[in-house]
Amino acid sequence: MPFSNIAFRKAVNGIRKRATGFFLLAVLFLAVGFLQDAFVNYQIHKTTRLELNESADEIASEIKQFVKTGQNLLKPCRYDIIKVILFSSRPAKENPKHA
């Protein structure tokens, strides 16, 4: 028999120690991964909230400026941007103006 009982027990104890260390290392990596995920999610939400607040402030200031100057917000523009986009995005053969 190549292994005696003592050698077999030493081998099993060595494997247990390594397995325990490997398990603890895996738990450590898992915990670090969860912390990184939570940190990144927090930063994304924080940045998004700041950018949306800045946009809302800019829109509010533009509305105040329109109200202050007495301009009608619903007044049609000189150039309708939707028509510009529609007619400029079509190929020439489909656009009746360029046929």
Describe the structure.
By secondary structure, the protein is an all-alpha fold. It has a domain at 5-71. The protein is built from 2 helices and no strands. The radius of gyration is 34 Å and the shape is rod-shaped. The termini are far apart. The relative contact order is 0.04. The model has no long low-confidence stretch (mean pLDDT 77).
In short:
By secondary structure, the chain is mainly alpha-helical.
How are the SSEs placed, and which strands pair?
Elements: H1 5-69, H2 81-89
Q: What percentage of residues falls in helices of 4 or more residues?
A: over 70%
Based on CA atoms alone, the radius of gyration comes out at 34 Å
Structural class: mainly alpha
Task: Determine the strand fraction and express it as a percent band.
Answer: under 5%
Q: Which labels suit this protein?
A:
99 residues; mainly alpha; 2 helices; 75% helix
